[in-house]
Amino acid sequence: MTDLDDDIPQLIEQPVNEVKPIGLKPDAAVARVPLTIISGFLGAGKSTLLQRILTERHGYRIAVIMNEFGDTADIESKTINVGTGEDPSERSEEFLELANGCLCCSIKDTGIAAIERLMQKKGAFDYILLETTGLADPGPIASMFWYNEEFAMGLGRDITLDGVVCVVDAVFGKKQIEEDHAVDGIGESLRQIGCADVVLLNKVDLVSESAVTELQGIINGVNPVAPLYQTIRGEIDLKCILDLKAFSSGPDARNAPIESSYNTGAGHAHDHTDNRGPHETHYEMRGISSLQVSCPPLSGGQFERFDEWLRSVLWDGKLPSGEDRKLEVLRCKGMFTLDSGEQYVLQGVRNLYEIDVVGRKRSLGVPEDGKVVLIGKGLDEGVRRSLIEILS
Ligand SMILES: Nc1nc2c(ncn2[C@@H]2O[C@H](COP(=O)(O)OP(=O)(O)OP(=O)(O)O)[C@@H](O)[C@H]2O)c(=O)[nH]1
């Protein structure tokens, strides 16, 4: 069984210094363009990262959308098919094809219509990066794309959600996490970190090593499964943030990261180890908790009960026992092996989730132990015990 708290920190900073061939081909069968959401609190360095992508010779043809996207209320009140009926005088967009192959798309209106117009230029780019506003909760945006992709609706026919990247300000990140306005107990900066597939800790040139270490501990506690990279002015190998396939189903889902790349055990982590049963780690920060449980191969019955448990937690916000706990899950991920040998991957954002078979055990590089990670609100001791009971 893997001892998660013994994971070796891997904090890598990789310069973008070579021109690579485009490795981001959309699946030919469906010809969908991957989309990555870039979130991050005000001033963290999102625009700097995108600017870098637009000006460096990296070999990718990326359409970068810089706009006011991220008005959650606006997005949630619309369907992905929206694109007509708005006042064109309020729209303003600019497309610029750049020397490095990127397509810069600066769009001022909110919502899906902006991306619909970008998609009229389909073929001019292989990838879309979407910057949200500093106060946006990326969860609704991610779930909207994922949901529509699943049912091949509207833009879901053309775009596939690849992942969510969160840029955190190394200077003000800790203060932002501690002070941002809590919405239902979870501030936006915590939602952004909790929802992320990758976190970039930016502006590390401006702070001490100990401040970096402390903030890393907090970020990793909130989101123990997102790889964490230190950056200066958004300098990062694009392979670390693109083509993550964090929401893919089928064999591709195997690539979705569910292992932490960093773990200090800092913050208020409580480690409960039991050699016979699942191993779990729990962390709580201003109302947001991350709960990790690793488990041995499951029986078919256990797997079914886990599915029921997940439906209750994600859809009804409570445990199957009926206790009203007001649970809110921002992200969940997992990998399981059944005692029959089949392996499954779990991915979820807000109340949407998918469990897909990815193969059989003893495949190269796939651990036999399973692991579930939940990030959200109300994931307390009772939830932990309830999950352990099912997975034991
Ligand atoms: N020293 C230093 N400054 C940085 C770094 N990254 C960004 N900056 C500066 O920080 C400021 C904010 O960066 P932006 O890229 O505009 O941040 P943002 O997240 O897009 O900001 P909003 O759009 O307001 O949410 C700018 O003045 C950048 O030049 C870094 O790694 N080191």
TrEMBL record:
<dbReference type="GO" id="GO:0016787">
    <property type="term" value="F:hydrolase activity"/>
</dbReference>
<keyword id="KW-0378">Hydrolase</keyword>
<keyword id="KW-0342">GTP-binding</keyword>
<dbReference type="Pfam" id="PF02492">
    <property type="entry name" value="cobW"/>
</dbReference>
<dbReference type="GO" id="GO:0005737">
    <property type="term" value="C:cytoplasm"/>
</dbReference>
<comment type="similarity">
    <text>Belongs to the SIMIBI class G3E GTPase family. ZNG1 subfamily.</text>
</comment>
<dbReference type="InterPro" id="IPR011629">
    <property type="entry name" value="CobW-like_C"/>
</dbReference>
<feature type="domain" description="CobW/HypB/UreG nucleotide-binding">
    <location>
        <begin position="34"/>
        <end position="228"/>
    </location>
</feature>
<dbReference type="InterPro" id="IPR027417">
    <property type="entry name" value="P-loop_NTPase"/>
</dbReference>
<dbReference type="InterPro" id="IPR036627">
    <property type="entry name" value="CobW-likC_sf"/>
</dbReference>
<keyword id="KW-0862">Zinc</keyword>
<protein>
    <recommendedName>
        <fullName>CobW-domain-containing protein</fullName>
    </recommendedName>
</protein>
<keyword id="KW-0547">Nucleotide-binding</keyword>
<dbReference type="InterPro" id="IPR003495">
    <property type="entry name" value="CobW/HypB/UreG_nucleotide-bd"/>
</dbReference>
<dbReference type="InterPro" id="IPR051316">
    <property type="entry name" value="Zinc-reg_GTPase_activator"/>
</dbReference>
<dbReference type="GO" id="GO:0005525">
    <property type="term" value="F:GTP binding"/>
</dbReference>
<dbReference type="Pfam" id="PF07683">
    <property type="entry name" value="CobW_C"/>
</dbReference>
<keyword id="KW-0143">Chaperone</keyword>
<feature type="domain" description="CobW C-terminal">
    <location>
        <begin position="304"/>
        <end position="382"/>
    </location>
</feature>
